[in-house]
Amino acid sequence: MSPVKNSCSAAAPLSQLKMYSFMGGGLFCAVVGNILLVVSTATDYWMQYRLSGNYAHQGLWRYCMSNKCYMQTDSIAYWNATRAFMILSGMSCFAGIIAGIMSFSHFSSFERFNRSFAAGIMFFIATFFVLLGMAVYTGVTVNFLGKRFGDWRFSWSYILGWVAMLMTFFAGIFYICAYRMCESRRGTGPR
Asked: How far apart are CA 69 and CA 62, in angstroms?
């Protein structure tokens, strides 16, 4: 049985080029965003501070003082929530990347399922999860840890988390724009 040709592939060449440009830009943003999510989640430079005159830094999994690092063995709710949201975000972004790569194919056996739309939604879900994780960490750090340590600041792992959120958001925007271009080429028939 031969696959059914997707009606988006019948679009005019210029329109198709624009659609692929949006999808390519979205895929680039998604790959960069997913790499940043992994690096941000795995590294231990979310916060830097001075403790008893010594430089220290911590992440979601470890804290380091006097050039020695130790695992975070405490099961503190905000760390667990931040970890979970960051991992869910990375998984959602990866699923969106797979759907985004698959959306480049012209053939589909599903007439009602648009992979560009699915990829865009997955990227927005990833954005939502990273936003939740960063908001939880920021709120607790500013209100609790910031008062405990007088000389402290957020560090590069934390900043990468916010940049990853922006990248996944823009990936979602690009894929939804590609979907809208595809839908506008199909016409306005009933669904």
From this structure: 6
